[in-house]
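Give me structure tokens for this 395-residue protein.
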Amino acid sequence: MNASVIARIAKIVPLAIVAAVGVTACGPTEGGASVAASAPASAPAAASSATPGAGAVPAVPAPAAPTAEAAPTAAAPAGQAPAAGAATAKTDVKAAAKAAAKPTAPKAPAPSGGSGIGITFGGLSEGGKIGLNDLVPFTVTWKNNDATGTRSVAPVVATQQYEGAPCTMVLAMADGTLERKDASGWKTLDHLSQGGGMDYAGTADDAAFTLAAGESRTIEFRMRLSLANRPGQITIEADAPVPHSKNYLDMAKAELNATVVDSHSPEMLSVMPPAKGVITTDPIPFSFRVSSPDGTAGLRSRVTVWSSEGPTPNDVTVEARVGDVWKPVELKDECGLVTVDPNVPGVRDGNTVEYTFRATFKEAPKYGADVDIRVSAESNGHQSVQRSVFLRDAR
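Here you go.
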């Protein structure tokens, strides 16, 4: 390579570097502003150039947009400083990065209401135990975590649908009382449990309050689940709806799960379903075993027959086995067809009683739906859990 060629390369290479840096930093423009300037601050459009000096190599900037392709760069020869035009490219890169880091205008405050509200429970622990018929105190704290302004809150508390409710065929609403402590004292609320809609969310408008940014309010509650309930898993829910509003889409809420217990509740030991779990006009036998911590003297069997399309007391017959005889028992139309017959002694074995029943459907094909037979027991007003003997439509 002759001397003239080497001289030409020495003059051209720095200019190529300047061109690559300038194209990458600016990129395509939209309305006179570079695309790199509109990039999020967390991802600067370009890195700064290398510090000038002997052996310095300009840094390769990040691409400003997917459509912009950076031209390849070449290192300057050792000991040679970049051309004067590199200073201009360096200034453009810094300007683009500065524009990208410029904060955007703050968003307008959200409408006053439940959004941004934090809710916590006190006095009850997650997974803790609640005794039936016990007066259970607890607190709920609502805090405005939104720094943009005040929030109005209606302090709603209610239990969700409960598996141990007296009736669970349609709406499983816990039975009992819920009180809230207001400035004038304890107030008994209209409902302990949620129903089938959102009506419960409008039950605390009379106790509504406003929270400034960062402010909190703690309210005392106490609850008593009656003995009409059964043991089970219950969820208490606290909400923060906007007072006098029917829009609950942005409503903050918190949940606390607990186990409902009863030290006097009979225990369901086992259930023996029928051999064929289908509805027929033939007698369908089933049995179950129960024990009681208070002895068997006060035990009573309970059988419930339910279907979404019936049946009525005229559609089915339930019989209990007493010794070697099948004895008809009375059915009452009460949250399904229910029988509680004190004259069904069952077969006693120590602290255990086994009950055997059979159900006969007069016109089984007419239902067009499955039938749920639920068995349980009670002892001196205390309820056991329910177990199902599921019968499916044979059609």
